[in-house]
Protein: EB domain-containing protein
Organism: Cyphomyrmex costatus
Amino acid sequence: MNPANVRMCVVLGAIMLAIGLTNGDKIGSLLYRRCKHEQDCLFEGGICNYTISQCTCLKNYLPSSNLKSCVQKIESLEVACTDKNQCLTLLANTTCDNRKCVCVPGYYFADKACWKMAGYAEACTKNQECSHIEGSICTDNMICGCAADTVLNTNGTKCLTAAKMLQDECIESVQCTFEFSTCVDKKCQCKEDFHYEREMTRCFLNKAIGDKCANNYECYQIEDYKNDPPIKSMTCDSNDSNTCMCADNYVLSTEGKCVSENAGSSLSRTIMVSLSILVCATVLTYILS
Ligand SMILES: *[C@@H]1O[C@H](CO)[C@@H](O)[C@H](O)[C@H]1NC(C)=O
Ligand SMILES: *[C@@H]1O[C@H](CO)[C@@H](O)[C@H](O)[C@H]1NC(C)=O
Ligand SMILES: *[C@@H]1O[C@H](CO)[C@@H](O)[C@H](O)[C@H]1NC(C)=O
Ligand SMILES: *[C@@H]1O[C@H](CO)[C@@H](O)[C@H](O)[C@H]1NC(C)=O
Protein backbone atom coordinates (compact mmCIF):
# COMPACT_ATOMS: atom_id res chain seq x y z
CA MET A 1 0.00 0.00 0.00
CA ASN A 2 1.31 3.42 -0.83
CA PRO A 3 0.84 6.28 1.67
CA ALA A 4 -1.91 7.84 -0.42
CA ASN A 5 -3.91 4.63 -0.27
CA VAL A 6 -3.32 4.34 3.47
CA ARG A 7 -4.59 7.90 3.96
CA MET A 8 -7.60 7.10 1.79
CA CYS A 9 -8.24 3.98 3.81
CA VAL A 10 -8.01 5.85 7.14
CA VAL A 11 -10.40 8.55 5.88
CA LEU A 12 -12.87 5.96 4.58
CA GLY A 13 -12.62 3.99 7.81
CA ALA A 14 -13.22 7.13 9.84
CA ILE A 15 -16.28 7.97 7.73
CA MET A 16 -17.67 4.47 8.12
CA LEU A 17 -17.02 4.53 11.85
CA ALA A 18 -18.74 7.90 12.07
CA ILE A 19 -21.76 6.56 10.19
CA GLY A 20 -21.82 3.52 12.41
CA LEU A 21 -21.64 5.63 15.56
CA THR A 22 -24.25 8.02 14.27
CA ASN A 23 -26.59 5.18 13.55
CA GLY A 24 -25.99 3.72 16.94
CA ASP A 25 -26.46 7.11 18.58
CA LYS A 26 -29.60 7.92 16.67
CA ILE A 27 -31.08 4.78 18.04
CA GLY A 28 -29.48 5.75 21.34
CA SER A 29 -30.65 2.43 22.53
CA LEU A 30 -30.26 -1.25 22.28
CA LEU A 31 -33.47 -1.77 20.40
CA TYR A 32 -33.33 -1.45 16.60
CA ARG A 33 -29.55 -1.41 16.46
CA ARG A 34 -27.89 -3.57 13.84
CA CYS A 35 -27.21 -7.13 14.81
CA LYS A 36 -25.52 -10.16 13.37
CA HIS A 37 -25.69 -12.48 16.34
CA GLU A 38 -28.05 -13.16 19.19
CA GLN A 39 -25.42 -11.70 21.55
CA ASP A 40 -25.83 -8.27 19.88
CA CYS A 41 -29.30 -8.01 21.38
CA LEU A 42 -28.64 -8.95 24.98
CA PHE A 43 -31.32 -6.93 26.75
CA GLU A 44 -34.66 -7.86 28.23
CA GLY A 45 -36.98 -9.33 25.62
CA GLY A 46 -34.46 -8.63 22.83
CA ILE A 47 -33.85 -10.79 19.75
CA CYS A 48 -31.92 -10.38 16.53
CA ASN A 49 -34.17 -10.30 13.49
CA TYR A 50 -31.81 -11.68 10.88
CA THR A 51 -34.09 -10.68 7.98
CA ILE A 52 -33.52 -7.02 8.67
CA SER A 53 -30.38 -7.43 10.82
CA GLN A 54 -31.91 -5.39 13.65
CA CYS A 55 -32.57 -6.01 17.30
CA THR A 56 -36.31 -6.29 17.91
CA CYS A 57 -38.59 -7.52 20.68
CA LEU A 58 -39.57 -11.10 21.27
CA LYS A 59 -43.12 -12.16 20.65
CA ASN A 60 -45.18 -11.15 23.75
CA TYR A 61 -42.81 -8.22 24.30
CA LEU A 62 -43.08 -4.66 23.09
CA PRO A 63 -40.64 -1.75 22.92
CA SER A 64 -40.24 0.17 26.19
CA SER A 65 -41.02 3.87 26.03
CA ASN A 66 -37.32 4.83 26.13
CA LEU A 67 -36.58 2.20 23.43
CA LYS A 68 -33.77 0.85 25.60
CA SER A 69 -35.33 -2.54 25.95
CA CYS A 70 -38.51 -4.53 25.58
CA VAL A 71 -41.24 -4.97 28.17
CA GLN A 72 -43.63 -7.82 28.54
CA LYS A 73 -47.11 -7.35 27.12
CA ILE A 74 -49.87 -7.32 29.75
CA GLU A 75 -53.19 -9.02 29.12
CA SER A 76 -55.40 -6.47 30.83
CA LEU A 77 -55.38 -3.01 32.39
CA GLU A 78 -55.69 -4.63 35.81
CA VAL A 79 -52.28 -6.30 35.57
CA ALA A 80 -49.37 -4.42 37.16
CA CYS A 81 -47.30 -2.37 34.66
CA THR A 82 -43.80 -0.93 34.61
CA ASP A 83 -43.93 1.00 31.34
CA LYS A 84 -46.66 3.16 29.80
CA ASN A 85 -46.34 1.33 26.47
CA GLN A 86 -47.80 -1.73 28.16
CA CYS A 87 -50.93 0.27 28.91
CA LEU A 88 -51.02 2.20 25.64
CA THR A 89 -51.19 -0.96 23.53
CA LEU A 90 -54.38 -1.84 25.42
CA LEU A 91 -56.01 1.59 25.62
CA ALA A 92 -55.36 5.07 24.22
CA ASN A 93 -54.55 8.01 26.52
CA THR A 94 -53.23 5.83 29.32
CA THR A 95 -49.99 5.74 31.24
CA CYS A 96 -48.37 3.60 33.92
CA ASP A 97 -48.52 5.29 37.30
CA ASN A 98 -47.39 3.53 40.45
CA ARG A 99 -47.53 0.15 38.68
CA LYS A 100 -51.10 0.75 37.55
CA CYS A 101 -52.49 1.61 34.14
CA VAL A 102 -54.40 4.87 34.52
CA CYS A 103 -55.80 7.57 32.25
CA VAL A 104 -53.37 10.42 31.50
CA PRO A 105 -54.01 13.64 33.45
CA GLY A 106 -57.10 15.49 32.21
CA TYR A 107 -58.71 12.21 31.15
CA TYR A 108 -60.98 9.91 33.10
CA PHE A 109 -62.18 6.36 32.73
CA ALA A 110 -65.76 5.65 31.62
CA ASP A 111 -67.36 3.06 29.35
CA LYS A 112 -64.08 1.12 29.03
CA ALA A 113 -62.12 4.09 27.67
CA CYS A 114 -60.23 7.20 28.76
CA TRP A 115 -62.16 10.35 27.83
CA LYS A 116 -60.96 13.91 27.78
CA MET A 117 -62.59 15.72 30.69
CA ALA A 118 -64.49 18.75 29.45
CA GLY A 119 -65.49 21.22 32.16
CA TYR A 120 -69.03 22.47 32.67
CA ALA A 121 -70.04 24.81 29.79
CA GLU A 122 -66.84 23.86 27.94
CA ALA A 123 -66.65 22.43 24.43
CA CYS A 124 -67.32 18.70 24.00
CA THR A 125 -67.93 16.19 21.23
CA LYS A 126 -69.29 13.21 23.19
CA ASN A 127 -71.45 12.72 26.27
CA GLN A 128 -68.64 10.76 27.89
CA GLU A 129 -66.47 13.88 27.98
CA CYS A 130 -69.07 15.49 30.25
CA SER A 131 -70.29 12.56 32.35
CA HIS A 132 -67.59 13.04 35.02
CA ILE A 133 -70.13 15.65 36.22
CA GLU A 134 -72.99 13.35 37.25
CA GLY A 135 -75.98 13.82 34.94
CA SER A 136 -74.13 16.16 32.57
CA ILE A 137 -74.28 15.62 28.79
CA CYS A 138 -72.77 17.10 25.65
CA THR A 139 -75.64 19.38 24.65
CA ASP A 140 -76.77 20.38 21.14
CA ASN A 141 -74.53 23.45 21.44
CA MET A 142 -71.60 21.06 21.86
CA ILE A 143 -70.83 22.19 25.39
CA CYS A 144 -71.18 20.21 28.61
CA GLY A 145 -74.40 21.00 30.43
CA CYS A 146 -77.02 19.46 32.69
CA ALA A 147 -79.72 17.42 30.96
CA ALA A 148 -83.21 18.88 30.58
CA ASP A 149 -85.00 19.84 33.80
CA THR A 150 -81.86 19.55 35.92
CA VAL A 151 -79.51 22.18 37.34
CA LEU A 152 -75.85 22.09 38.39
CA ASN A 153 -75.30 21.84 42.13
CA THR A 154 -73.27 24.52 43.93
CA ASN A 155 -70.02 22.58 44.04
CA GLY A 156 -70.29 21.68 40.35
CA THR A 157 -70.17 17.91 40.85
CA LYS A 158 -73.69 16.88 39.89
CA CYS A 159 -76.88 17.87 38.09
CA LEU A 160 -79.91 17.98 40.39
CA THR A 161 -83.63 17.89 39.50
CA ALA A 162 -85.05 21.35 38.90
CA ALA A 163 -88.02 22.14 41.16
CA LYS A 164 -90.69 24.27 39.52
CA MET A 165 -93.33 24.43 42.20
CA LEU A 166 -93.80 25.19 45.86
CA GLN A 167 -93.16 22.19 48.12
CA ASP A 168 -91.13 20.33 45.47
CA GLU A 169 -88.25 18.42 47.02
CA CYS A 170 -84.77 19.96 47.06
CA ILE A 171 -81.30 19.59 48.55
CA GLU A 172 -79.94 22.94 47.41
CA SER A 173 -81.61 26.28 46.70
CA VAL A 174 -80.35 26.26 43.09
CA GLN A 175 -82.99 23.59 42.46
CA CYS A 176 -85.82 25.96 43.36
CA THR A 177 -86.07 27.55 39.95
CA PHE A 178 -89.18 29.68 40.39
CA GLU A 179 -88.59 33.32 41.26
CA PHE A 180 -87.75 34.35 44.86
CA SER A 181 -87.70 30.77 46.13
CA THR A 182 -85.25 28.91 48.32
CA CYS A 183 -84.75 25.42 49.75
CA VAL A 184 -85.93 25.15 53.37
CA ASP A 185 -86.31 21.81 55.15
CA LYS A 186 -85.73 19.98 51.83
CA LYS A 187 -88.72 21.73 50.22
CA CYS A 188 -88.83 24.67 47.86
CA GLN A 189 -90.39 27.63 49.68
CA CYS A 190 -90.74 31.35 49.09
CA LYS A 191 -87.96 33.48 50.56
CA GLU A 192 -88.74 35.36 53.75
CA ASP A 193 -91.31 38.16 53.21
CA PHE A 194 -92.55 36.54 50.00
CA HIS A 195 -95.67 34.47 49.37
CA TYR A 196 -96.59 32.03 46.59
CA GLU A 197 -99.13 32.68 43.86
CA ARG A 198 -100.15 29.35 42.41
CA GLU A 199 -101.48 30.65 39.09
CA MET A 200 -98.16 32.42 38.46
CA THR A 201 -96.08 29.56 39.95
CA ARG A 202 -93.75 32.03 41.62
CA CYS A 203 -93.29 34.05 44.77
CA PHE A 204 -94.22 37.72 45.22
CA LEU A 205 -93.03 40.23 47.78
CA ASN A 206 -95.54 40.77 50.62
CA LYS A 207 -97.08 44.25 50.43
CA ALA A 208 -99.54 45.49 53.08
CA ILE A 209 -102.39 48.02 52.93
CA GLY A 210 -101.01 51.40 51.88
CA ASP A 211 -97.74 49.96 50.45
CA LYS A 212 -96.75 50.78 46.89
CA CYS A 213 -97.30 47.75 44.63
CA ALA A 214 -96.49 46.65 41.09
CA ASN A 215 -99.39 44.23 40.65
CA ASN A 216 -102.32 42.64 42.44
CA TYR A 217 -100.28 39.58 43.40
CA GLU A 218 -98.06 41.56 45.73
CA CYS A 219 -100.88 42.85 47.97
CA TYR A 220 -101.01 40.29 50.72
CA GLN A 221 -102.50 39.58 54.10
CA ILE A 222 -101.84 36.24 55.74
CA GLU A 223 -105.55 35.61 56.58
CA ASP A 224 -106.47 35.31 52.88
CA TYR A 225 -104.06 32.39 52.49
CA LYS A 226 -105.71 30.33 55.23
CA ASN A 227 -108.32 29.53 52.58
CA ASP A 228 -107.78 27.22 49.65
CA PRO A 229 -107.80 28.76 47.13
CA PRO A 230 -106.81 32.00 48.90
CA ILE A 231 -109.29 34.88 49.03
CA LYS A 232 -108.26 38.01 47.15
CA SER A 233 -109.38 40.66 49.59
CA MET A 234 -106.75 43.15 48.40
CA THR A 235 -105.89 44.82 45.15
CA CYS A 236 -103.18 47.06 43.76
CA ASP A 237 -105.16 50.22 43.03
CA SER A 238 -103.84 51.80 39.88
CA ASN A 239 -106.18 54.81 40.36
CA ASP A 240 -104.40 55.65 43.58
CA SER A 241 -100.73 55.67 42.44
CA ASN A 242 -100.39 51.86 42.73
CA THR A 243 -101.12 51.27 46.37
CA CYS A 244 -102.43 48.13 48.07
CA MET A 245 -106.09 48.63 49.08
CA CYS A 246 -109.07 46.50 49.97
CA ALA A 247 -110.68 44.97 46.89
CA ASP A 248 -114.30 45.52 45.90
CA ASN A 249 -116.72 44.11 48.49
CA TYR A 250 -114.04 44.25 51.18
CA VAL A 251 -113.62 46.93 53.84
CA LEU A 252 -110.82 47.87 56.20
CA SER A 253 -111.51 46.55 59.70
CA THR A 254 -110.41 48.32 62.88
CA GLU A 255 -107.42 45.91 62.98
CA GLY A 256 -106.31 47.24 59.58
CA LYS A 257 -107.34 44.08 57.72
CA CYS A 258 -109.50 43.81 54.64
CA VAL A 259 -112.68 41.94 55.60
CA SER A 260 -115.80 41.03 53.66
CA GLU A 261 -118.40 43.85 53.70
CA ASN A 262 -121.07 41.27 54.57
CA ALA A 263 -119.03 39.82 57.41
CA GLY A 264 -120.14 42.65 59.74
CA SER A 265 -123.83 42.46 58.78
CA SER A 266 -123.89 38.67 58.86
CA LEU A 267 -122.41 38.83 62.35
CA SER A 268 -125.17 41.22 63.52
CA ARG A 269 -127.74 38.97 61.83
CA THR A 270 -126.43 36.00 63.83
CA ILE A 271 -126.64 38.05 67.04
CA MET A 272 -130.21 39.12 66.21
CA VAL A 273 -131.29 35.55 65.53
CA SER A 274 -129.64 34.32 68.75
CA LEU A 275 -131.29 37.13 70.68
CA SER A 276 -134.75 36.34 69.29
CA ILE A 277 -134.32 32.66 70.16
CA LEU A 278 -133.25 33.65 73.67
CA VAL A 279 -136.23 36.02 74.08
CA CYS A 280 -138.60 33.42 72.66
CA ALA A 281 -137.26 30.74 75.00
CA THR A 282 -137.54 33.05 77.98
CA VAL A 283 -141.15 33.93 77.09
CA LEU A 284 -142.02 30.28 76.54
CA THR A 285 -140.41 29.28 79.83
CA TYR A 286 -142.42 32.04 81.56
CA ILE A 287 -145.74 30.98 79.94
CA LEU A 288 -145.23 27.28 80.63
CA SER A 289 -144.20 27.73 84.25
C1 LIG B 1 -38.22 -9.54 11.10
O1 LIG B 1 -38.61 -8.28 10.53
C2 LIG B 1 -39.49 -8.43 9.42
C3 LIG B 1 -39.71 -7.03 8.86
O2 LIG B 1 -40.09 -6.12 9.85
C4 LIG B 1 -40.75 -9.11 9.86
O3 LIG B 1 -41.65 -9.23 8.79
C5 LIG B 1 -40.43 -10.44 10.47
O4 LIG B 1 -41.64 -11.01 10.99
C6 LIG B 1 -39.42 -10.32 11.59
N1 LIG B 1 -39.03 -11.63 12.06
C7 LIG B 1 -39.03 -11.97 13.36
C8 LIG B 1 -38.60 -13.34 13.68
O5 LIG B 1 -39.39 -11.15 14.24
C1 LIG C 1 -55.94 10.37 23.23
O1 LIG C 1 -56.08 9.28 22.34
C2 LIG C 1 -56.46 9.60 21.02
C3 LIG C 1 -56.56 8.31 20.25
O2 LIG C 1 -55.35 7.62 20.28
C4 LIG C 1 -55.45 10.56 20.40
O3 LIG C 1 -55.92 10.96 19.13
C5 LIG C 1 -55.25 11.76 21.28
O4 LIG C 1 -54.25 12.58 20.76
C6 LIG C 1 -54.91 11.34 22.69
N1 LIG C 1 -54.75 12.50 23.52
C7 LIG C 1 -53.72 12.66 24.38
C8 LIG C 1 -53.68 13.93 25.15
O5 LIG C 1 -52.88 11.82 24.53
C1 LIG D 1 -71.21 18.48 46.49
O1 LIG D 1 -72.57 18.67 46.77
C2 LIG D 1 -73.31 17.46 46.91
C3 LIG D 1 -74.76 17.83 47.14
O2 LIG D 1 -75.30 18.42 46.00
C4 LIG D 1 -72.75 16.62 48.04
O3 LIG D 1 -73.44 15.41 48.12
C5 LIG D 1 -71.28 16.37 47.78
O4 LIG D 1 -70.73 15.70 48.87
C6 LIG D 1 -70.53 17.66 47.55
N1 LIG D 1 -69.16 17.35 47.17
C7 LIG D 1 -68.13 18.09 47.54
C8 LIG D 1 -66.81 17.67 47.03
O5 LIG D 1 -68.25 19.05 48.28
C1 LIG E 1 -110.35 53.30 38.73
O1 LIG E 1 -111.03 54.38 38.10
C2 LIG E 1 -111.96 53.95 37.11
C3 LIG E 1 -112.57 55.20 36.48
O2 LIG E 1 -112.41 56.31 37.32
C4 LIG E 1 -113.04 53.05 37.76
O3 LIG E 1 -113.96 52.62 36.76
C5 LIG E 1 -112.38 51.87 38.41
O4 LIG E 1 -113.35 51.07 39.09
C6 LIG E 1 -111.32 52.35 39.40
N1 LIG E 1 -110.62 51.20 39.91
C7 LIG E 1 -110.46 50.94 41.18
C8 LIG E 1 -109.73 49.70 41.53
O5 LIG E 1 -110.90 51.69 42.06
